[in-house]
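Notes, Module 5: Reading structure tokens.

Key idea: the token line is not a picture. It is a compressed description, and you learn to read it the same way you learned to read a sequence, by spotting repeated patterns. We will look at two proteins. The first is printed below with its tokens.
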Amino acid sequence: MNQPHIIVALTERVKNTLRRGIIALLPEEADPDPLIRPSDRADLQANVALSLAKQARRRPTELASEIVAGLADPVIAAAAVSGPGFINITISDSAIWAQVRDRLTADRLGVDRPETGRRTVIDYSAPNIAKQMHVGHLRTTIIGDALVRVLSFLGAEVIRQNHLGDWGTQFGMLIQYLDEHPESPWHADQLTPGTDAIEALDGLYRAARAIFDVDQAFAERSRARVVALQAGDPGTVATWRAIIAESQQAFNALYARLGVLLTDDDVAGESFYNSMLPGVVEELRADGIAVDSNGALCVFDPEVTGPNGSPVPLIVRKSDGGYGYATTDLATLRYRVTELKADRVLYVVDSRQALHFRLVFAAARRAGWLTDDVDACHVPFGTMLGPDGKPFKTRSGGTVRLSDLLDDAVRAARTVVTEKNPQMPEEQVDRIAEQAGIGAVKYADLSTSRIKDYTFDPVRMTAFTGDTGIYLQYAHARICSLLDRAVDLPGVDASLNMDVTLPLRPAERALALTLDQFATVLTDTAATLEPHRLCGYLYTLAKAYSEFYEACPVLRAPSQPSRHNRLALCRLTQQTLAKGLELLGIAAPHSM
């Protein structure tokens, strides 16, 4: 039975040993950083002697020698001074094998829950009702989902929030058009197969917009319909609710295909905050934070100025008395802090909104809604580009539907899966191509530093080689196949009783030490909110496994103890890859 204990990484154990040794030599150093990094001359290298030599009034090599002389830890097999004062450290083979054994028998691979006790609200995806999700929604949706998964795994209480665009003057126009064109189908049960409600609604909205722009009478009727919606007219509200329900059904189908965790329970659209807007504005006005500017109420941050040197306004009430998205965002932030009791609020929104969030956070702090013990953070990301290096568009210059982009990736994945396995049954090809294609899109996005732009290339991202999602999925499937075959070998049992006294071969050592960094990488990913760190680790792990597999026979190992140890390495690699892919929201197929 798995034991719920935490496994401290070997690097951390060595770091703690060095820290104790340094404090013993230099008591005035309360919390010294040993400055440890991987080394090609040993397992680890510590550069602390170079940084502390001046304070210690010793030559770096002398201080390094004193530190080495005081090291007493069975984890450390050897420590030696080299160069100008580096400390090269080799971890004992038995400690490395024991670490593999302990992670395999521990619950959660021995990963701690450092985010426990922290309530984090994550705002992501946020499509608009009655409009199809497009490529612009991809990054917020899958980056946000990956952060939800990683932070939850590390113990945070995560509250997902899908801030749907479900309110505004556009609904008056659409509802009026639907009322005047009852023959136009838009409910899912009225449509032909292959057409969803949101596609129909999107088309009807465009038709309504075309009439609105040229027909003054229709425009007036549409404005009156907005007033009716705001006043709670039963018929108008019923149609509005039906539009939202049909849209959410389509969104949920896409979320399910993407493997995203969002559900209807996570929805808190713009309309949810409508009743709060007057109170937000009045509080800002009464406190002197919002002031009149040409008939509008604005908040000015003296630290944010425009090209002419004047403060940039955050408009909280327009001159016509209406409210904009800045007002809604302020109400949203206040609600999340005061009602949801968030310790941290993350907004996964593209980088072009950086100034907006800076102004919103500053206004909320001045109002006292955002206090020093609450962290509000804009998590920005770059743009998906087409082959021409420009924002991804259709050939006609239109916005690419997200479903079409996923279809392109699945087709590309199907091609490579079929080429690799021409005899595979059609049903299996379909299943694997869907998993691989969706995984390829998500990995290509997540493996790029989120602040950078990247190019959508379905052929490159579905390759079986290189830094791709399908490469990681295939590595996982290969390990599963090997473990399945191992079950039939004589003398191999499920417990894989390991012999920690065996010497390590270089490829075994490299793989084991890479596996031991999983928890550290997750903590770094959570601290920086950068999923590409986890992607990079999983790719490094898959490569380390490939090198191990080529150098160290597993099923034909020279002895039964060696076979057990190597199978343990395979099993831990499989479990780590599976968990890592799960935290990215990517399937880990058993076969491909």
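Here is the second protein, with the sequence above and the tokens below, as before.
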Amino acid sequence: MKILVADAFPKERLADLERLGVRVEHKPDVSAKDLPQAARDASILVVRSKQVTADVFEAAESLSLVVRAGAGVNTIDVAAASKRGVFVANCPGQNSIAVAELAIGLVLALDRRIPDQVAELRAGRWDKKSFSEARGVFGRTLGVAGCGAIGRETIRRAHALGMHVVAWSRSLDDAGAKALAVERAPDLLSLARQVDFLSLHLPLSKETRGIAGRAVLEALRPGAALVNTARAELVDQDALLELARSGRIRVGTDVFAGEPEKGKAEFDSALAKLPGVYGTHHVGASTEQAQDAIARETIRIVEVFVRSGHVPNCVNVARKTPARARLVVRHYDKVGVLANVLGLIREAGINVEAVQNTIFEQAQAASCAIELDETPPPALVERIRARSDEVLFVDAFDL
């Protein structure tokens, strides 16, 4: 089995992958364009930020698993993977502290204008008078949109600074807000209206793309700041540029529209050039601690898959199949028994959606639950029951 690691990965963790008894090929500089060819004979593909397009799944017939060494899977064509029966997994929560640290760092930088102070000193200018006008963050209000692992870590750090926290998430109820010691906003627009800093910690999906639109941005108080360490696509970039350029809001962002694919490249961003915008280079998850935690979780996913075929953190297995009925067959644990049962089901023109076969102690008998896309007719059940030398019991019921 070959594993292709197509992004940067700690060397010592590459050795841990090799100890699983697999062949590891490390190509951190392979481009997204060349990835289909590079992955052609790989069984497992590990990526961080590299785009995995439908072409990869078409070219790599042996590919069984793609692991995103990070949170989210927006760089992977999950639909294409699902069509080819390829598992997709990620490493949620492993970079939470690192991203939360940067989010709070951007809040403090915006309040104390730290980048501007550094720039003035490097230019040989001293301006204590202007830079003494910071308000401070103690007692001010931080809005947190998204209460997953990163949002919760951000809330924890904001509390440590004495900030008042208001939060919104589609899954956040009153009990959850009480547990987090935050005030709950009913929606994102309401949240934006009452905060000094709005920090985004939402995953990118069809529902969240553009969720921080013009109405949300305009709801921020004059002089308030947007902090985005999640995804650029969450925000209406045209509205953001307009409002930041006018000076109505300030921005601290780790993510930009049109980011370069490579780690080093020329990058011309109108937003990044504005004086009220502090940007970092999409490095929220890029601490040594976070990367090691993500690498360890990647290894765990690969090891479980290699040893058992199970995929932890899988994002594209159907939560509910189209099955309408379940056939339960208790049978002798002998060669060909299930093959014969499945053959009879095939002859009846019924599709199997899921199979789970449980072996009992001493390996003499087993129970198999077969989910079907339609109710098996009585004649089929009787044909299976008639195989008394193989079948102990059979029953069917609708789901």
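Summary for the second protein:
- The mean pLDDT is 95.
- The longest strand covers residues 325-332.
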